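Appendix B, Record 12. Input sequence as logged:
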Amino acid sequence: MNQLKRILPAYPIFLKDPNFSLWSTSERLNAGNLQTWWGEEKRVYGFIEADGKTYCFMGDAAKWYGGVKNAEQIVLSVTAFSTEYKFKAGSAVLKLRFVSPLPPDNIELLSMPVCYMEYEVSGGKDVRISLFVSCDIAYNKTNPDKRVRGAAMKLNGFESAFFGLKRQMPLSNNGDAIGADWGYWYIAGDNACYFDWADFRKFLDGGKTFKNSGKEYVGAFSEKRKGAVLLGFDDVVSIDYFGDFLKGYYLKKHTINDALEYVWNNRGKINAELDAFDGNLKARAEKFGQGYLNILYASLRQSVAGHKLVQDGDGNIIFLSKECYSNGCIGTVDISYPSMPLYLLYNPVLLKGMLLPVFKFAKMPVWKYDFAPHDVGTYPACCGQVYGLKSGVGNLTERNFGDTHFPYYTLNSDADIYDFDFQMPVEECANMIIMLLALYRADGNLSVFEQNRGNIDKWVEYLVKYGLKPENQLCTDDFAGHLKNNINLAIKATVGIAAYAELCLADGAKDLHKKYRAVAEKYAAEIMDFGNKFTHLPITWDSGENTFSLKYNLAFDKLLKLGLFPQSLLEREVDYYIKKAEKFGVPLDSREEYSKSDWLTWVAALTDDSEKRAAFIKRIDDYLKNSPERVPFSDWYDVKNGEFFQFRNRTVQGGNFILLLEKGL
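Logged structural output:
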């Protein structure tokens, strides 16, 4: 049998948002069933009938139904928005292209909740292509009520079938590794049906007619040699935005049928746009090598589809991340910070859409602190920060897996629900200010800064007071535990203060610019003076030559052209990291043997030497091709053996686009 070369640990098949996310975890599309990003199997089957026989090209049907054989897969490839295959089925050859239209520079198309499978058949006789979806896609396996309803219908030139739970539970399941127990799934093609197991068996045995008897499957099929099957998801309600129940951006003004009809009639136009994006991406990435392009391909769909795009009551674009397989938080500040290079490159309005919910919550009475929040809730509910909640405050914060949260944002300033020991005060203050300057440099608009000065002024003062030698606290790498005198965090605080100074200058406040620029320069000088005692910067102010950590926070000093730290310091750091490199990367710091892919590309961005950059790129690409677990691109893994530590499908992989920002902002 043909040996297929591995490209990624898992392959995106149909991706749109955290509740519309289906992956293949093998090089062979018919080696098993598709999985959600958190690993729950979903029965989605693809078949080609040719020469009087039925072959399976997707799913495990050949394992349990004797009348079906597996088609022989001979090609696998990926692009920015597609995963592509070729199969042999008897004398027929089948080409497939699974497309997830997620261009970050087109929010209408990005938010349109439809993906599609394009097919083309050559050879073979009496050909029929079909795609079937089991009702288990409509609910979580933990849901005890699995009753569904559905129907088939004719649309303008094609047909669609749909189903969803009889008992809809909108916006339930405020949790991490879980999907929606609400909404309706649609499959569309030349012919569509909603049918039961008995009809499914008849179809596999060559049956040509259906009763639309319902209960278990929706399917689409065609006897044409070239065409498409569409998969859509109407979640009806997408986000609880501080009490406002919001539809997805596209569905706010359209119906799911509008989406299906648009994609059905305009696939050529969509493909041309996606292909142009892909071509541009290839051109931008070319100087960094094929391995880097592969990293970007692994990152793009995952990062964008880890968000939900909505519009608030004031007409603002809101782009909310789900902190997948780390705690399920929504709108996490230290998730947005590493992810921002992708969105700075292609559509800064999406970065703005990450910041606005945080500013909105920070103005609410319950957030009475002089530092920035960590998050705004648990997906899909912006209920107020949930990270660091005190346990069981009057039963207010007690919760089982998947339960909805109380709307903490409604509490007043007397509420005492947060444990300071589990906050990230220096981290989040600096993150917000650095992202603000990056946004301004990208779009030239100071409005977000001007409208939130009250909080931003407090946050920069927090950095001035506590940033140079941070107290024992968490940073974005919270999995590594608390750390006192964290130099990487001190660098971030210093960059944050300088970023604030630049925002003040842009706003005409020259005196404030001078004041805070002087503070940033003073802190940077202290950090460099300390570092000059060693061959590299240690992990903390009270450690020495035998410790280190990746100083990825230097990256935005360089990209924002703040000039706090000289290039010679950055090169020296990179040289030291390369000496510490293992098979799949450089450890995050000297305490453990794990690292993070996003930070590895950020430190690669510190150097101007192409060979040094390549040393990091190769190791991440090797991880993608050789990691032992088959899960969506994990950003936290062991640099020696490639074993991942929990995280998967996280939006932070947008950070891997940082090398494309080499000219700065």
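The chain has a mean pLDDT of 96.
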